[in-house]
Amino acid sequence: MAFPQHWQIWLASGGLVIVPVFFQAPLVRLFPELSFVMTLGWIGISWMLRTRHWGQLWGDLLLGFSWSWLAGSIYWGWLRWEPLYHLPIEAIALPFVLLDLVLRCRQSRNSWGLIGHFFYLGSLLGTAITDIYFYLVDLIPHWRQLMQVEPEFVRPVFQEAIAQIYTPWGGFWAGALLTLLLVMGLFPLRSKQIQWWAFSGAVLSTLVVDGLFWLAALCA
Prior knowledge:
Helix 2 (24-30) packs across helix 4. By secondary structure, the chain is an all-alpha fold. The protein has 11 helices and no strands.
């Protein structure tokens, strides 16, 4: 029996959030221009898949991923030294996505694009909640330091950040925002509409990415 399509989209959405941590992150530090130009490649593959019946859903998802890739290329390539720019850059496509969703509500339009939109919104939501935690626990100064110091000096910065996370204040907000992510990630799985599964996969994969960064800080 074929693997259900909803679960395929859910897993792929999660993968498209997690994989850039290993692939785009080192690429954009060394070759930011290449990472930026690769956005056009993702968009091209997306539209190519759209022309094939079997690939329409995947092309749709990949188009949403292209927005996230573009934002990551811009921020981590040239602006990573200033955390205040992170969320605005990640939201670079938000006006276009919201406008298209509003127009869909007012007009009779085909559903192509919804999976990509919901993936992007889920990814952006996960990013926003993570950034909110950084602000609430006052980890932003450590973020700035990590972007400026040489690799051999990152350990003390990580240790100071971990110490703040392990305070009662840090623990409270970690638990609260973790619960929020779980609720917002699991509740959409009740829907039969496949775009909500893309949203869920993107939101829940944020927990994996955050967990990887936490482990990196512990092991530093």
